[in-house]
Design a protein that fits this description.
alpha+beta; Wheat Germ Agglutinin (Isolectin 2), domain 1; 2 domains; three-stranded antiparallel β-sheet; 5 helices; 6 strands; disordered N terminus; binds 2-acetamido-2-deoxy-beta-D-glucopyranose; serine-type endopeptidase inhibitor activity; Prot_Inhib_GrowthFact_Antg; Kazal-like domain-containing protein; Kazal_dom
Length: 153
Amino acid sequence: MLKIVALALVSTVVVLGQTFPHTDHSEHHHGTSICAFIGNADCSIFAPHTVCGTDGKTYNSKCDFSKAHCISADLHVVHNGTCDPTIDKVPNVHGNELVHQFFCANLQHSKCGTDFEIVCGTDLVTYDNLCLFEKARCSNVKLNVYTYQACPT
Ligand SMILES: *[C@@H]1O[C@H](CO)[C@@H](O)[C@H](O)[C@H]1NC(C)=O
């Protein structure tokens, strides 16, 4: 019996270790859980808000822009409104920032699901998955990942 428990513990650690290497505390993980929501979003239900992307394309909404940013991480915002071909495509707002704004503005639509990917936040609260962590980060921009395991008690 003890052996089985020990084995289960070891394999859990291995699985978590592979999915969430401790050295990587970056946007990759944040982006992944947000992009899972955005990937499923029906952009036609969101308010129009045109933005010009650094790729020279005009996006009709923050939703459309966010979908594109989730596919191409180096896409950023030049300015609000339709792209003006006479204006240089200099990034003014980081793509991640608009994506996070969009996600947080639509929390009531975003369902976190029951994936179990434990995160300990720098608030020392244990979140069951990254999506729940992201929701908490919407009201606390200083919140970051402390470790990808349960917080010390
Ligand atoms: C675009 O408009 C929003 C308000 O709709 C504003 O909060 C934001 O700062 C504007 N962004 C730029 C790059 O002007």
